[in-house]
Amino acid sequence: MVGMHPGRVTSQAQILASFFSSAGYPVERASSVLNRYLRLLDIVRTIVRLRNRTDILILEIYGGPSFVVEDIAGRLAQLFGIPIIMWLHGGALPQFMKRFPNWTRRVLGRASLLVAPSQYLAHAVVPYGFEATVIPNTIDLSDYPFRQRAEITPRLFWMRSFHQIWNPFMALRVLARLRQFVPEASLVMAGPDKGLATRSREMAHELGIHNAVTFPGFLDSTQKIHQGNAADIYINTNRVDNMPLAVVEACAMGLPVITTAVGGIKDLLKDGETGLLVPDNDDEAMVQAIKRLLGDPTLAGQLSINGRRLAERSSWEEVRPQWERMFAKVDRMNWSRKDTDL
């Protein structure tokens, strides 16, 4: 797994490993190296070094170029007889599996169990003959102070990477349209640059909204809470997604969420109850959803409270026993296999 690095989002694997370490589990982590090839080398060396002391390998599965790393790590663990829980991630994983069905079956077939953070990914593996248990991504709920929103202002918050799959340009277009009706509307766009940050700033000038947009860059935990508390609406413009932790974090802070209905988001949020969902890349629909929220304090308050309740399902207190049941199941499977071998 990728560890914590300045200016980079902490991975869900790093969060989970830290939680289990704090709970007293002996946890070894591989790898914090950012270079893909050096990371593979570090993972291989770690598996080999710990082959006789590893009870379970939790292997993140993303697809794409990293599937080569996942394939090699899974094969190596299989050779050493290490039980594997494969943890599915990434909104683009279903498309990858469709492109490479045989490779998918070969790699996933090495797992003792599959875990997915959403029904979206759990359903995606069924055509290949697998079942996945849904365990949501987790957060430390105490890190996210809750403020119920009811009488809200048009202060928008967007927090993802500046990459085409997160569609930052849509957020800017939405603000430009919204300010035609709500001139005081503003937007904070935060996150690491994945190639589109400069173009996003240029676009803000072209649309004449540069004075209404703030680009604070990557936010650490303290800055994230500060910006979240200052905002009243969280907008999510993703074109591909699974179970976005940023959305869960926004819900935890009481921010009503308006998001594109792509990938696993349709499983995570229920339109009108825990968020407002709009079609992919539909600027006008998102503007109308924002205007609806601004004009309906009751709806805003309901989304705020229900969002917090949704986030509570991702708290460590809720998620830990689900993972421990997976560990127990793998242990039973391992003992059953040993009995059969005897």
How does this structure look, described?
- It is a single chain.
- This protein has 342 residues and is an alpha/beta fold.
- The chain has two domains: 12-138 and 315-341, 3-Layer(aba) Sandwich (Rossmann fold), CATH 3.40.50.2000; 141-312, Rossmann fold.
- Helices cover 46% and strands 13% of the residues.
- It has 14 helices and ten strands.
- It has helices at 12-22, 36-49, 66-79, 93-99, 101-108, 119-124, 168-178, 197-206, 221-230, 245-252, 265-268, 283-294, 297-312, 316-341, and strands at 57-61, 84-88, 113-116, 132-134, 155-159, 186-190, 213-217, 233-236, 257-260, 276-278.
- Strands 7-6-5-8-9-10 form a six-stranded parallel sheet, with helices on both faces. A four-stranded parallel sheet has the order 1-2-3-4.
- Helix 2 (36-49) runs parallel beside helix 3 and helix 10 crosses helix 13 (297-312).
- The longest helix is centred in the last third of the chain and has 26 residues, at 316-341.
